[in-house]
Design a protein that fits this description.
alpha/beta, Glucose Oxidase, domain 1
Length: 160
């Protein structure tokens, strides 16, 4: 689906939620969209890797990392795993690392920043629950649309 978030906002006024503009653009796909899946973790990326190890079916993994700027939750190998398994994108309320490797993948990635330190590996966190950050609640099964102008979320598909 070809789209512009600006056009989707105009055509669906009152039906979409606009994510606060706090994210940097990474990954080889600037424009992406898909059904939302969620993970809530803090400085631990085991559940992120586990989720992206499953078939993505063009979904978008939204990672609530608590906004931590103390380590990375997604790196080059995890982005390559997402690409291999058919994920459309990853939105990280936290940091990424290996940005050059991430940018070489055909996955759209948004994150707060980069950080060279890897996360811990304890497996703590939750999957597939609503998570709230950047002024929006991301609900599994809802839809996320991203391009160079920003990110929007909708309860229903906006495909025309």
């Amino acid at each position: 689906m070809l789209f512009k978030t600006t056009d989707l906002c105009d055509a669906n006024e009152g039906k979409v939620r606009v994510v606060d503009p706090i994210f940097r653009i990474y990954g080889g796909k600037i424009t992406f969209s898909g059904v939302i899946a969620t993970v809530k973790v803090f400085e631990d990326n085991v559940l992120v890797r586990d989720s992206l190890s499953e078939p993505g079916n063009d979904r978008v993994l939204v990672v609530d990392g608590g906004g931590s700027l103390r380590c990375a939750l997604v790196g080059g190998l995890i982005a390559q795993l997402a690409e291999k398994n058919g994920w459309a994108g990853i939105v990280v309320f936290g940091c990424v690392r290996d940005s050059e490797e991430i940018n070489a993948t055909a996955v759209g990635v948004r994150a707060l920043n980069t950080h060279p330190l890897k996360s811990v590996k304890k497996g703590a966190g939750d999957r597939n629950l609503p998570v709230t950050f950047a002024g929006v609640t991301f609900v599994p099964g809802h839809y996320l649309y991203a391009d160079e102008d920003g990110l929007i979320v909708s309860a229903a598909s906006l495909e025309t």
